[in-house]
Specification:
The protein is an all-alpha fold and 139 residues long. The chain contains 4 helices and no strands.
Length: 139
């Protein structure tokens, strides 16, 4: 009796008119997400190190020129904003990879419709379709 092996093929939904995902395209997306996560983790670490340095420099303001203090505060605020943005991108990439590995990638987290192959190829960390993303940004 011959044994049959069943290979699980991930099916990611596509929009009408789009070609189905190929195994090569799926592998490429997963690799891109993984590489993105590694790069963003390095950026988060660098931004946090820069922020720590700015916080240490700005701790002692006694005797410093008010303009220097203001400049340091501005730099610190900018660095905090950049670090928060990078952390948000990292969280999005981690979420997309979790969804990918769970077989739930490509489905809008708001409406449940396909996100679309073209959108995911350009922005692999997308978790919402274009319509839902536009609604969210208007709020």
């Amino acid at each position: 009796m011959a044994s049959s092996t069943t290979e699980t093929v991930m099916v990611i939904p596509v929009l009408p008119g789009e070609e189905p995902w190929t195994e090569e395209e799926l592998a490429e997306v997963r690799t891109e997400l993984h590489d993105d996560i590694e790069a963003l983790q390095k950026k988060v670490a660098a931004a946090e190190a820069e922020l720590r340095q700015l916080l240490n420099e700005g701790a002692d303001v006694a005797g410093r020129d008010p303009a220097d203090v203001g400049s340091t505060n501005f730099e610190r605020d900018q660095e905090m904003s950049l670090a928060a943005n990078v952390r948000e991108l990292l969280d999005q990439s981690l979420q997309a990879l979790r969804l990918f590995d769970a077989g739930e990638y490509g489905v809008c987290e708001v409406c449940g419709n396909p996100i679309g192959k073209a959108r995911l190829q350009v922005f692999p960390r997308a978790t919402m379709c274009v319509a839902c993303k536009q609604k969210a940004e208007r709020r």
